Amino acid sequence: MTSPSVLQSQSCHSLADWLCYIEQSHPIEKIELGLGRVLQVASRGALQQLPDRVILIAGTNGKGTTARTLEQLLLAQGYSVGVYSSPHLLKFNERLRLNGTDVSDELWVEGLRQVEALRQDVALTYFEFTTLAAFAILKQQEPDFCLIEVGLGGRLDATNIVEPELSIVTTVDLDHQDWLGNDRETIGREKAGVFRPGRHAVVGDLQMPQSVAEVAADLGARLTCAGHDYHVESDGQQFDWHFGASQLLALPAPAVPVQNVATALTTLALLDVLPAEAVIRTVLQELTLAGRMQWLSRQPAILLDVAHNPQSARYLASALAQLAGQYTQIHLVVGMLKDKDIREALVAFCGNSWRWHLVSLPGVRGAGSDLLQQALPATEQSCQYRQLSDVYSCIEAASADELFVVFGSFVTVSAMLSLWPQENV
């Protein structure tokens, strides 16, 4: 007799059908770390055996910009490249790119069908199911390089079933403490779980936790560390990169953190695929990533950033301080998830006379504007809104010398992108 789950999956035709089916089977908000289930299913189709050269990227912040830098530098040399990342901003298809283009609905459906056939009676989380589908597509497409972003942590994340040629930990800071631990040493140990014996391991955090070095030593990984083995010096407009006998001077600083760019350059140097300096300069001049210091509009001035934890908030606040002289007022439009360290994230922006617009986010994880209000000192100027669209009239009425910064969550930035006319993006 056919099981109910098979009957339901047989009725799936479009990508939307499949995503609805997977989410109904296991809600997207539910997190279950562990490699047992995902490896059991992957082994039935050897999905963990990705083609050619795999780079596995973990870290609290900076995974997306590091992956984008690697992708663009490899594509510029003629390599074929697959990139798996999460979450997405507007369309699920964004989670897997092949040669710079989001994978089609048809390829995703094919991958999801393959995983459904392989899993049989094994229950998979939303992330596990879609990760395996991405791996199925990568196996079929066979790009020269597979760049895989870890979802959460590292050691027990579903992506960690692959065998990378090189692993990266971009940064280590407080986030997802319920799952990873309450201090940087514990979190660092989890993230370093992506390292492999005898393989290169690159760490981009200038204050690397000792636990990361200990895991690398225990495994026999070949550790390369920012601030020790490679260095970056920047004045905001240009930066220098030094790694051993290699150096590149006065490179154009892109609209992403130069520390992540330096980590990407070091990675490619270790793999002996660093492009010519002229190619690097051309790529960096055009390097951007949606939702990361993204100018949605210059008039009115709207800046988007998915900063959602204390470390990323401090980086964004520092960047805004450099822009403050250009505007008479900076408006902070923020919506966050309630399982984040809201107080520590918001305090990074306080004391600047910037005006707060506090937005409630929907869903079981969404924080209400009242919760955001409680996290702010009484001296901060703020208004509360039920939803992001309620702030829209303020943005439309803004003068040319005002800047609106939308941040706090992928959900918040996604909502703003959806509201803004796409022809203006």
Provide key terms for this protein.
425 residues, alpha/beta, UDP-N-acetylmuramoyl-L-alanine:D-glutamate ligase, Protein-Tyrosine Phosphatase, Chain A, six-stranded mixed beta sheet, globular, disordered N terminus
Per the principal axes of the C-alpha atoms, what is the gross shape?
globular
Helix content estimate:
25-40%
Number of domains: 2
Euclidean distance between termini CA atoms: 51 Å
- Based on CA atoms alone, the radius of gyration comes out at 22 Å
CATH hierarchy class name of the largest domain: Alpha Beta
Architecture (CATH level 2) name of the largest domain: 3-Layer(aba) Sandwich
Strand content: 15-25%
Number of helices: 16
Structural class: alpha/beta
Number of strands: 17
Say what the CATH topology of the largest domain is. UDP-N-acetylmuramoyl-L-alanine:D-glutamate ligase
How do the strands of the widest beta sheet line up side by side?
Answer: 4-3-2-5-1-6-7-8
Instruction: Let me know the CATH homologous superfamily of the largest domain.
Output: Mur-like, catalytic domain
Q: Quick one: biggest sheet? A: 8 strands, mixed
Q: Which stretches are low in confidence, meaning pLDDT under 50 for 5 or more residues running?
A: 1-7
Taking all residues together, what is the mean pLDDT? 93
Description:
With 425 residues, this protein is α/β, with parallel strands linked by helices. It has 2 domains: 4-285, UDP-N-acetylmuramoyl-L-alanine:D-glutamate ligase (3-Layer(aba) Sandwich), CATH 3.40.1190; 294-424, Protein-Tyrosine Phosphatase, Chain A. Helices cover 37% and strands 19% of the residues. It is built from 16 helices and 17 strands. It has an 8-stranded mixed β-sheet, with helices on both faces. α3 (36-45) packs parallel to α6 (126-141) and α5 (105-119) packs across α6 (126-141). The radius of gyration is 22 Å and the shape is globular. It starts with a helix and ends in a 6-residue tail after the last helix. The relative contact order is 0.11. Mean pLDDT is 93; it is low at 1-7.
